[in-house]
Predict the 3D structure of the following.
Amino acid sequence: MELDLKAQFQEMERIHPWLMEAAEKYQLPEQTISSLNLCLEEIILNTMKYGYESSHLDCGMIHVRLRSEPPRAIVEITDNADPFNPLEYRDRGQAASLDETEVGGLGINLVRRFSESMDYRRRDNHNWLQVVFRTDQE
Amino acid sequence: MELNLENLNDSTKVIILTGRMDFTGTQEIDMKFTGHTASSNQHVLVDMSGVEFVASIGIRTLVTNAKALKLKDRKMILFGLQDNVAKVLDTAGITAIIPACGTREEALQKLEG
């Protein structure tokens, strides 16, 4: 299943209903839906917030494609935002206290921990990110 | 999302959250939440039992407000987390920083202890 989003914040609310439709079609388990939901939310919001700083937000397009290959669900996110490779983003580790906690910067770490694997390529002026989830694990 | 408030006593209030703490949901309650933590000198218990999803933007709201409370020497304690919400908060390391309890009673005990 596919979803096209404009790089505008009000488009964020379309992710969850679309995912629920896809989950029903592919019979995805609760845990996979939950991980997929979290990762899509983090990745797409990140792209909308930071991806279009050097270009015009009003022509930003984000394309999402989800397919089921049991025991995996695979999501591909393609956008025309500035180059950004989340695989190169360094994990800063967990904060030990409230004072040390940095607000923000958490999203990509969560994607890493809630998915099985990630793959990134920059091609034809687009970011292509693939995130793989297991559908057979708790 | 919905945010409801219950004043337990002079020193403690309960913020009851319901819905999805994603981008859209968190925006709906963020300013109210901040208003409630800023407007008094009470400790804040957060009833999370009606929260079915949390993303980093929701975590940001919790952490920002917990920090603001700490500056006033007040505490924030979460309770009633659903399993998938607990998993995200644990993974993000938040439950090590903002205490989380099973029930309101346990949260109150934690506050006194």
